[in-house]
Amino acid sequence: MKLLLVTAVTITTALAVSPASAQKASAQKASAQKTGCTSENMAKLVASGNAMPDTPGKFAMMKEMGAANTAMSKGDMRSACKSYMRAQQMSGQKS
Question: Rounded to an integer, what distance in angstroms lies between the CA atom of residue 35 and that of residue 49?
């Protein structure tokens, strides 16, 4: 499970700093900052999720984070941020 999360965060970070998509990333970053959906906030949520005990709530939260990472890899920041916000609500965390 931890390997999957580390891989997801690594992919997210790689997409965020990729020079080939710099223009696209800057537009996505601008829209993400409006909703609080940043790679830093996502990393914090994943880290707090790892500290949570194994419960159905944790697994649902991590599933939403996986959906957010998948949407980000496809360039769909709107869906990624929606999934991130749902995961954030499940964790009870405020950014």
Answer: 20
